[in-house]
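Consider the tokenized backbone below.
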């Protein structure tokens, strides 16, 4: 059985085990290693992607169920250069070890696409599903709050 996938606007065919997790297929078959396979339980958010424009944890998604869905990975976020979230994170020097940041960037990009002027509390609430053990989150929130404000 071949699963047809649209990833970052390009069509891919996958003919492996349809029970394989999306994160493993992204990393091992298609060499898109931005999504980090950390907890593999849907808890940490490091592997977050967008599926049909909605945040999802690909460690819990069987590849065989995703035929026809539009998948956007962290690699797709920077197809035309860094997006505003990535630029703000770079400017505020918030990235430390880097394991959680692809998922956080996906989450925050989604938040800002639906709420371009969130409060600090709304940013913190949006990141509930993203675990970061290095930053303490405040610099992340500061960076997000700077977006669109000159």
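A designed sequence for it:
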């Amino acid at each position: 059985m071949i699963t047809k996938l649209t990833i970052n606007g390009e069509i891919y065919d996958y003919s492996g085990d349809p029970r394989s997790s999306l994160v493993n297929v992204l990393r091992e078959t298609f060499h898109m290693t931005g999504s980090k396979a950390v907890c593999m339980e849907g808890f940490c958010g490091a592997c977050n992607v967008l599926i049909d424009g909605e945040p999802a944890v690909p460690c819990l998604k069987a590849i065989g169920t995703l035929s026809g869905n539009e998948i956007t990975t962290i690699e797709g976020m920077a197809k035309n250069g860094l997006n505003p979230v990535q630029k703000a994170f770079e400017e505020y020097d918030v990235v430390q070890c880097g394991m959680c940041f692809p998922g956080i960037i996906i989450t925050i990009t989604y938040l800002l696409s639906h709420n371009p002027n969130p409060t600090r509390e709304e940013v913190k609430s949006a990141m509930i599903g993203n675990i970061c053990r290095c930053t303490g989150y405040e610099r992340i929130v500061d960076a997000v709050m700077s977006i669109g404000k000159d």
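The mean pLDDT is 93.
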